[in-house]
Each structure stands twice: as structure tokens, then as C-alpha cells.
Amino acid sequence: MNYDFRKATTSDIPKIWKIIQQAIARRKNDGSQQWQDGYPNEDVIRTDITKGIGYVLTDNETITSYAAILFNDEPAYEQLKGTWLTNGDFAVVHRVAISDNYTGKGLAQKIFLFTEDLVIKKNIFSIKVDTNFDNIPMLKILEKLGYTYCGEVNFRGSDRKAFEKKLPVF
């Protein structure tokens, strides 16, 4: 497999939206409440791409996965019920979704590892992320990758677990 991590383009939206819909269905089938309220939707993805924060992981030219990566821009994180590990610049990973054709291949982990490289190149050494209490696959990935539970944040009226990973400074 020849994976590449790149910024998404507007021409990628139909493929990304299909992947998001598959991920929404998987969350529902897993018994999770995450993404069962009309979010994310196609407008959210289009806005991500317009803002330059939408990324795709490709296998050769096939889009396998999607994620949004923001920098120093998550107002909900200012209201953490808990304590972040750091107070400086940070990246946030949101809306991680994997195509049904690529589940079970460790691609969510690859997205986080590519994100680490991207963040370090920008001289940022913290990644923050949140997920639903019942998103067991993501909770396991965050644990495996060394993220630290920091507390809870509230998104759209529900509490979510918040994590941070401090990256090594070279």
C-alpha cells in the first residue's frame, strides 16, 4: 500500500461524503450515539475544505479516509472540565472517518501518525482530540497511541472525553 496524506479538494467531496456516511452507519451499528444527530454533514466537510483543514489519506489515488486538522482553534477546549497537559499551540483532530473498504487496516492510526508529522513540521508539539464516551474503537486507538485523558468537553449539548498527546521536541 502506498499511502499519502494530503489536503482535500472540493472535487474530493463526493468521495469524502460517502466515507462519512459509512462511518455514521458504523457508529450506529456499534451502538454509539456519536454522529447520529445530522453531524457531520456535507456542508461541514465543504467548510473544512474551504478553510484548508480537510485532509484525506489515499492509497495510490483512492481516498481511504478523511480527517479535519485545526490549529489553535477549538473554542470548546477552552471550557475543559479537567486539565490539559500543555497550554501552548496545539492541533486538533476531528471527523476521522475510514472507508468501509479499508476498515481494520489501521488507517485511523496512520492518520494520527501523519498528523504528528504535519504538526511537528509546524513546530507544534501538542495534539488534542475528543470523542464520545461510547466510541470504543477511537478510545482504543487513542490509548494505543499514547494519548492522555484530560477531562471532558461539551459539544452540541453532550459531554465528550478529551485527550492530549505531547509530541517530542527535536
Automatic annotation (TrEMBL):
InterPro entries for the chain: Acyl_CoA_acyltransferase, GNAT_dom
Residue span(s) of domain N-acetyltransferase: 3-168
Gene3D superfamilies: 3.40.630.30
Key words of the record: Acyltransferase, Transferase
Superkingdom, natural source: Bacteria
Enzyme Commission identifier(s): 2.3.-.-
Entry-linked Pfam families: Acetyltransf_1 (PF00583)
One annotated GO molecular function: acyltransferase activity
Protein name: GNAT family N-acetyltransferase
Originating organism: Flavobacterium paronense
